[in-house]
Amino acid sequence: GNLFRSKSDVKNKTELLVFLTPRIVRDATEARKLRDDTEQKINKKTRERVDATLTPNPAKPVLPELEKKSP
Prior knowledge:
By secondary structure, the protein is mostly helical. It has one helix and no strands. The chain has one helix spanning about 30-55.
């Protein structure tokens, strides 16, 4: 329903840049190594981004500290 609906008339223009690096691959073994290395780099970056969004900033507490009242 309307509770979760949103409408925006603002249009943002963005550009996607793709950089390609040509490589000469001489055999299947070299191709597999290149693929595996690239996959590891992508997975590492993905994990870093996920960790950054799921892990709270330890320098900034989620809740303020409780005031201690004397008896």
